[in-house]
Amino acid sequence: MTDKKKAVVLVSGGLDSATVLAMANAQGYECYALSFDYGQRQISELNAARAVAKAHGAIEHKVVRLSLNDFGGSALTDNNIDVPEEETEGIPVTYVPARNTVFLSLALGWAEVLGASEIFIGVNAVDYSGYPDCRPEFIDAYEKMANLATKAGIEGHTLSIQTPLISLTKAEIIQAGLTVGVDYSLTVSCYQADNHGQACGRCDSCRLRAKGFEDAGTDDPTRYQS
């Protein structure tokens, strides 16, 4: 018998979610990794998610298939919208409408089935590209809703949403990840990576990642397209 707490960890295959999974594992949680094939522009991040889940302590890894590309509305789910390669003001076109709300809802369902008391998600309100569903206000509101909407919550088995990266810079995230043994060479952050997981080096996510490694003063293991 184990007395470890169970946690569902959202794992995209990117730098942030890999860090969160390794952190949760280091804290002694039994980690159940959850990823989504949601019709995103590139699928190499899911290959990265599988590698990250295997390397960093997931008891089980599920990939749920969705079709957010049926709605479009984002450069990540609609091939008619270009991924921007220059900085833009406001909420960028790479924002996927309601994505974290959808993802957290499915994580909530699995957590209730597992009897897990925590959901870990790698949202960040510092280097977060302007996404509204990465803010503390959203997480707080969702956690309150989750405990109102579930049998577990009504019966007093409170669920919490853990966001250990929410107030960290990208450099601080990388430094924290290195202390818990994250292998960042396994991760893919690029919005338009090729089928081999090689990054474009030009999109917003690539720029944030490169600056993070530079500011952290550590080697960047990212593989770039030639």
TrEMBL record:
Residues at which ATP binds: V11, S12, G13, G14, L15, D16, S17, A18, T19, V20, L21
Involved pathway(s): Purine metabolism; 7-cyano-7-deazaguanine biosynthesis
GO biological process, alphabetically ordered = tRNA queuosine(34) biosynthetic process
Q: Where does Zn(2+) bind?
A: C190, C200, C203, C206
Cite the InterPro entries for this sequence. QueC, Rossmann-like_a/b/a_fold
SUPFAM superfamilies found in the cross-reference section? Adenine nucleotide alpha hydrolases-like (SSF52402)
Q: Which UniProt keyword terms apply here?
A: ATP-binding, Ligase, Metal-binding, Nucleotide-binding, Queuosine biosynthesis, Zinc
- List the Gene3D superfamilies hit by this protein, alphabetically: HUPs
Q: Output the superkingdom of the source species.
A: Bacteria
The free-text note explaining how the cofactor binds reads: Binds 1 zinc ion per subunit.
This entry's Gene Ontology molecular function terms read: ATP binding; ligase activity, forming carbon-nitrogen bonds; zinc ion binding
Co-factor requirement: Zn(2+)
Task: State a single Pfam family of this protein.
Answer: QueC
**Entry keyword annotation includes Metal-binding:** yes
| Catalytic activity of the protein | 7-carboxy-7-carbaguanine + NH4(+) + 2 ATP = 7-cyano-7-carbaguanine + 2 AMP + 2 diphosphate + 2 H(+)
EC annotation from Swiss-Prot or TrEMBL: 6.3.4.20
Job description of the protein:
Catalyzes the ATP-dependent conversion of 7-carboxy-7-deazaguanine (CDG) to 7-cyano-7-deazaguanine (preQ(0)).
| Family matches, as PANTHER family | 7-CYANO-7-DEAZAGUANINE SYNTHASE
Similarity-based family: Belongs to the QueC family.
Protein name per the record: 7-cyano-7-deazaguanine synthase
This protein's species is: Oceanospirillum sediminis
Starting at the broadest rank, the lineage of the source organism is: Bacteria, Pseudomonadati, Pseudomonadota, Gammaproteobacteria, Oceanospirillales
